[in-house]
């Protein structure tokens, strides 16, 4: 397992509702913000905040933000990704909106929604998913074996691609440099996978269960530089 210090997120997070994309821990994506509550979150939190903590938000997938803040919130997806807002770019054309560059930090689970307006805020429970302190030697051994097996299968599939292509060679080097436990999230974010598949990976909060998925490594074959 990795010796990197664990990430600690606030127990309360403002929620950014996304419908057409899924952010995984360790990955970065751009998302457009143009709906009522999401706009309020950017304007009130990201643009006016002065601390690092003010740039951390909870990204909730598979949940559309209602067009008007007079509408009730829809049911929220239970698992989200805590994210760091790296960049915020605004525009008024063709209508007011912001483009956010966000980087996933770790998973969390919504405990309860504390408020819905002007933007939703929830009490959250951090889910590192990577069992930092396995309870038994058997668990540690199982995690180690599964992690190494996943790594070997991933390497085999990548080496079946054209290694003369720079992007493929870069992916091969990436496999060696990343902590084994980070491979499922990172690979899923860079290979050609559907949002449904990414959502399934996000919802896998047990590392043993995730690494045991028979379809996960095969997704690597979908990588296209």
From TrEMBL:
One of its GO terms (molecular function) is ATP-dependent peptidase activity. SUPFAM superfamilies: PUA domain-like. Gene3D superfamilies: LON domain-like. InterPro entries: Lon_Prtase, Lon_prtase_N, Lon_prtase_N_sf, PUA-like_sf. GO terms for biological process: protein catabolic process. This is RCG44284, isoform CRA_a. It comes from the Eukaryota. SMART domains: LON. Pfam families: LON_substr_bdg. Signal peptide: none annotated. Residues 13-222 form the Lon N-terminal domain.
């Amino acid at each position: 397992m990795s010796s990197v210090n664990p990430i600690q997120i606030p127990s309360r997070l403002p929620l950014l509702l996304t419908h057409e994309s899924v952010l995984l821990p360790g990955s970065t994506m751009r998302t457009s913000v143009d709906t009522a509550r999401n706009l309020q979150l950017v304007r009130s939190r990201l643009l006016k905040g002065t601390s690092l903590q003010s740039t951390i938000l909870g990204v909730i997938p598979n949940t559309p933000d209602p067009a008007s803040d007079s509408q009730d919130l829809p049911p929220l997806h239970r698992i989200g990704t805590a994210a760091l807002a790296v960049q915020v770019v605004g525009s008024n054309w063709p209508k007011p909106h912001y483009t956010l560059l966000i980087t996933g930090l770790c998973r969390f689970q919504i405990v309860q929604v504390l408020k819905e307006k002007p933007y939703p805020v929830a009490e959250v429970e951090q889910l590192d998913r990577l069992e930092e302190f396995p309870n038994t030697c058997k668990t540690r051994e199982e995690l180690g074996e599964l992690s190494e097996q996943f790594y070997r299968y991933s390497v085999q599939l990548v080496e079946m691609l054209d290694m003369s292509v720079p992007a493929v060679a870069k992916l091969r080097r990436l496999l060696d440099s990343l902590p084994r436990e980070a491979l499922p999230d990172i690979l899923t974010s860079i290979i050609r996978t559907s949002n449904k598949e990414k959502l399934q990976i996000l919802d896998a909060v047990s590392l043993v269960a995730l690494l045991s998925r028979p379809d996960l490594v095969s997704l690597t074959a979908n990588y296209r530089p």
